[in-house]
Design goal:
The chain is an alpha/beta fold and 535 residues long. It contains 18 helices and 23 strands. The strands form 5 sheets. It has a 9-stranded mixed beta sheet, with helices on both faces. Helix 8 links the parallel strand 10 (208-213) and strand 11 (236-240). It binds glutamine. The site of glutamine has 10 residues, from strand 19.
Length: 535
């Protein structure tokens, strides 16, 4: 198969949504029957974002094969329903690490090791790996950062070389911003012209220019951009602000982005992309018949990207039930015995988020107690599940100082403890229990009603686990271990017997919810919240 390589670069400013444009293009090509994968190249020196604070980089997304990756990979999977892997996210750190390892092994046979050609060769190698197996018609590679950044220079140089090597099998899409100047009453193309000039200085002529804008582009603006940026007017694509990111594939179809790419790569164009299911999803999303309010309790709630996959999972689940899910973001540090009622009263469901470390932990535990005692539907994810175990230990079993040893290593009731194979690990990067592991669900359980099967596989990212020494005490008191890893007996799911909907999961269901396949746990949770509302 003659794989086509599509590059997506960004200009003018960051945060224009390269990830959404890449994912939308992929969706359109997949909807035309092509096989597509998307890759993100990140120009920072961390080996992966696993060690980055959410304040720095938003959510860390985890793939089936256990890679800790950029959150854009979540968009890729949610849009295309195609799984990604470690090969889909490469950082400068990883590139340099492999070049330096090769140098130490002596692979360069005495050569001077340089950015060009050694670093650029390594970048090209990582791009071509995805195309080399013949699995994909298209490899879309999103280059992180903005053109002109010092750190993205080697990537743009690699793109220049790839175009030279691959000719029409390679297309460059440049995403820019067209600001509207209120005082002049005009959209302005100059920043785009400058950004394309900067690319030209680096030897790359974009083939397609996607213009992010708050107002529609008229013909004369399109012609102006075409003239100054050396592209055909039909290759100037408007990307107007959308109400939801899920509208973008439809907008890109209207703008014929997919046709532009197919034309330029000389691929056959037959009919239209099949977006029927997608449009049905959009219709349900925009025309809800009911409404619920769910509290999302976490310590990064002020950051819009920290709980990206959870927020998107609620959108998928809500749409499938035609139910609008209002998320009330609740800072766990704001919850204490005095504030609980004010903050949590009236919620139809409570989700306690994943996380690490002590900060805000008591607020999470208090919120869980409120959900348990007031029979409010509750979903605890990873740390959220661990907190549910701690809360039950303290307030039902009477273990006053019950805790996770992550927060209190000296507790007399370590109901959550470090996993055996984690005890000797000191290095932080990529050393958690990561990626997909199997779980067996007990048949007489709510979890089974949710999944409707016994064998499931879900993605993980943690070092601590339920302490099985306490299993009997918990089960006798009504907190049931209903999902277990069959190999090492690790508790994957707990639920309360005496509660309408109270489930804690050690894994992360949010990583595998997609538009085409919303996650059953989120659907069931929203449904329970709906039943708990008076609507
Ligand atoms: N800090 C907990 C652990 O390492 C939970 C991690 C998480 O929520 N992802 O086990």
């Amino acid at each position: 198969m003659n794989t086509k390589y599509i590059f997506v670069t960004g200009g003018v400013t960051s945060s224009l949504g390269k990830g959404i444009i890449s994912a939308s293009l992929a969706k359109l090509l997949v909807a035309r029957g092509y096989s597509v994968t998307i890759q993100k190249l990140d120009p920072y020196i961390n080996i992966d974002p696993g060690t980055l604070n959410p304040y720095e980089h938003g959510e860390c997304y985890v793939t089936d094969d256990g890679a800790e990756t950029d959150l854009d990979l979540g968009h890729y999977e949610r849009f295309t329903n195609v799984k990604t892997s470690q090969a889909n996210n490469i950082t400068t750190g990883r590139i340099y690490q492999s070049v330096i390892d090769k140098e130490r092994r002596g692979d360069y046979l005495g050569e001077t090791v340089q950015v060009i050609p050694h670093i650029t060769d390594e970048i090209k190698h990582r791009i071509k790996i995805l195309g080399s197996k013949g699995d994909y018609d298209f490899v879309i590679t999103e280059i992180g950062g903005t053109v002109g950044d010092i750190e993205s220079l080697p990537y743009i140089e690699a793109v220049r070389q790839m175009r030279w090597e691959k000719g029409s099998n390679c297309v460059v899409i440049h995403l820019t911003y067209i600001p509207y100047l209120a005082a002049a009453g005009e959209l302005k193309t100059k920043p785009t012209q400058h950004s394309v000039k900067m690319m030209l200085e680096q030897g790359v002529q974009p083939d397609i220019i996607v213009c992010r804008t708050e107002r529609p582009l008229n013909e004369s603006i399109r012609h102006k951009i075409a003239l100054f940026c050396n592209v055909e007017p039909s290759s100037v694509i408007e990307s107007i602000d959308a109400k939801t990111i899920y509208e973008v594939p439809v907008l890109m179809r209207e703008e014929k982005l997919d046709i532009q790419v197919l034309n330029k790569t000389m691929m056959p164009i037959e009919g239209e992309p099949d977006l029927d299911k997608w449009e049905e999803f959009l219709f349900k999303l925009k025309n809800p018949k009911s409404e619920v309010t769910i509290g999302l309790v976490g310590k990064y709630v002020e950051l819009k990207d920290a709980y990206k996959s959870i927020i998107e999972s609620f959108i998928h689940a809500g749409a499938s039930l035609q139910c609008k899910v209002n998320l009330k973001m609740i800072h766990s540090e704001s919850i204490n015995n005095d504030t609980t009622k004010d903050i949590l009263n009236g919620l139809n469901g409570i989700l306690v988020a994943p996380g690490f470390g002590e900060r805000g932990i008591e607020g999470k535990i208090t919120a869980i107690r409120f959900a348990r005692e007031n029979k409010i539907p509750f979903l605890g994810i990873c740390l959220g599940m661990q907190c549910a175990v701690v809360e039950f230990g303290r307030n039902v079993l009477g273990y006053q100082d019950a805790h996770s040893t992550e927060m209190n290593p000296d507790t007399s009731h370590p109901v959550i403890d470090i996993m055996k194979d984690q005890k000797t690990i000191c290095a932080k990067g990529g050393t958690m229990r990561l990626g997909a592991y199997p779980c067996k669900i007990k048949e007489a359980s709510k979890a089974f009603d949710v999944y409707k099967k016994i064998d499931i596989s879900e993605r993980h990212r943690h070092r601590y686990e339920f302490n099985n020494k306490y299993m009997d005490a918990y089960q006798n008191a009504g907190m049931m271990a209903v999902g277990i890893n069959p190999k090492d007996n690790l508790v994957e799911m707990v639920e309360l017997k005496d509660h309408p909907w109270f489930i804690g999961v050690q894994f992360h269901p949010e990583y595998s919810s997609t538009v085409a396949s919303p996650h059953p746990l989120f659907i069931s949770f929203v449904d329970a919240a709906r039943k708990n509302s008076n609507i």
